Amino acid sequence: MVEKLGSSRQILLLRNEEIERFEDQHRGIFEIWDGFFGRSTSPNSTEVRDLVALGLVGGGMKDADADALVAEQGPDQLLHLRTLAQGVLGVAFVPDALAESDDAGTDEDQKKTETP
Predict the structure, then answer these.
(1) Are 5 and 84 in contact, with CB atoms under 8 Å apart?
(2) What's the chain's Rg over C-alpha atoms?
(3) If you count Cβ atoms within 10 Å of the first and of the last residue's Cβ in the chain, which end, N or C, has fewer?
(4) pLDDT (tens digit, 9 = 90+) per residue, 19-78?
(5) Quick one: 76 exposed, middle or buried, by C-beta within 10 A (0-12, 13-18, 19+)?
(6) CA 69 to chain centre
(7) For the chain, what is the largest distance between any 2 Cα atoms, rounded to a whole number of angstroms?
């Protein structure tokens, strides 16, 4: 997943290693997933920030740089960070969803939906 964070676009990717690191410090990843949809305790700001930072690490950024970039984001960015955390987790669980959204709106898709 490539998203804007700070002043530039960043690669975010959660791999097994990052998910396990998250679970070691917080709680189960499926509980977090359910929390995004109101079926469990909602993720708190620390969990959201850590998910985004771990997504940056999975995308190739060094730990310290990822932590620093996320720490630079003020409270006014928490909703954006929450959206990024939910997105990077969703892509980890359903990677085909990103490919499907990338294909949406292509000429081929438009041709299929046009009425004669």
Answers:
(1) yes
(2) 16
(3) C
(4) 999 999 999 999 999 999 999 999 999 999 999 999 999 999 999 999 999 999 999 999
(5) exposed
(6) 15
(7) 56
